[in-house]
Amino acid sequence: MADYEVPELKEYPVVPLPREGVMEHLSPFLAKPEFQEALHYPGKKVVVEGENPKYILVDGWKEKALDKMGDLLNLYRGLRVFMDSCVKCGACTDKCHYFLGTQDAKNMPVARQDLLRKVYRRYFTLAGKFFPKLVGAVDLTEDVVNDWYSYYHQCSECRRCSVFCPYGIDTAEVTMAAREILAHIGKGQKYSNEIISKVFTIGNNLGLPERALADVLEGLEEDVEEDIGVQVKFPLDKKGADVLVVTPSADFFAEPHIDGLIGYAKVFHATGTNWTLSSKASEAANFGLFIGSYENMQRISMRIREAAEELGVKRIIYGECGHAWRVGYSFLNTLAGPFDFLDPNYPVPQHICEFTKDALDRGLLNIDKSLNDDMTLTFHDSCNVARASGMGPEPGGQFKIPRAVIKAVCNNYVDMEQGTIHDETFCCGGGGGLLTDDLMEIRVKGALPRATALNNVVKNNGVTHMAAICAICKSQFTKVLPYYGFTMDQIVSVHQLVSNAIILEGQNTDDDDEAED
Ligand code: SF4
Ligand code: SF4
After folding, report:
1. Which of 135, 260, 444, 490 has the fewest CB atoms found within 10 Å of its own CB?
2. How far does Cα 168 stand from its chain's mean position?
């Protein structure tokens, strides 16, 4: 199945001995010049050697990289503090899933930070300028740039290490800064940059044009009616709707994502909510976060504001997408606000789990939990929801609300062990712009800690399925779970569970089916 060694599942995570350079061969594909330029980065020069184009760094790359680093250090005070404050206590060393899965010494968070820190010391500190060897400072060379490109794309910006750092050093911020510098010297990442370009030109990550999206939604209406005998609507660009739903484009076509979208629609149907999707904002994901570009994050976020204004909605609700929720929860108002044209009685934005939980609490949904009795569930806290945002009015709502929704629609629920959930959750291994086939090796290896925790509740508690509220987590687990002996359908959407259990007025039931037979 893989031409690399897949780590062995053990009962408990084993902290491995560090090894030098075992993952230095792995780097993502480079973005082509046209995709660089679409994001306002320089296109790379291309040299043709035989049949293979070879990309080289832009002219004056060293000065440009250092200028950019200086800009970022001045702009983000936190970055300078992170560069200065590490005391090498070692608390973070065994906290990264990529280190646990690969043993590569540079995948220890402190070592990953040091790749940038050593250059920072050389050019931005007095001691590093005059006594570089004494303070571990190094010159910026092409080898260093290559190391950055490799190891800053073996970090999913999950922030787990920062939870354990006594100084709160956030490696994700260091990774974002490094990627931003790399993009400015022509070393942007193909996967993220192409996807962002598609959002600008077509409206979503998948490049699904408006007509195709409308067809998909019409097809879904027919499928749901055929299935349950109720006309559940999936409105698109409906002017005057109360609620604009922005959701990851994976929700429009792939399993288990699409089952979640059906769940949202059934909840809106049951609650009589006047809602719509938007062809302009047909993507909740915001890969500007992954590449560390606030400029591109803002450009992507503005589409949501424009769609909300054009449609005249009163509320914005986000579907199941982890990093989109982080950008929405933490940055949307700053990047695209003020949203003073929306109903002030609701948070901007609101999460679909908040909406469903509220409907459940108010008794608006007719639920038969036994319809999920063929499953025993656990819940995977997605990094960007768990560690970088909140949900609802209470602290820790991002942990409580999704679990409350699952427990309201399922009889059988078990949490994975402490230390692997809530704010200590392990990344799926595919976040932060790593969900691409050219990085499959690190994705598989980085999934080891989560697969270990899942395996324990499967063996000890009879868990059959794991639910998540993140499109990247769902896509990643669909691909990597089989490497650890699970099946791809063991990952489900939270609103897929809601969809299974909800009974709409006039809905066909099993009794009706039996009567027809
Ligand atoms: S942010 Fe996550 S992926 Fe990156 S070094 Fe820390 S633990 Fe590893
Ligand atoms: S836990 Fe924080 S201070 Fe300690 S080595 Fe890691 S980054 Fe440095």
Report:
1. 135
2. 21
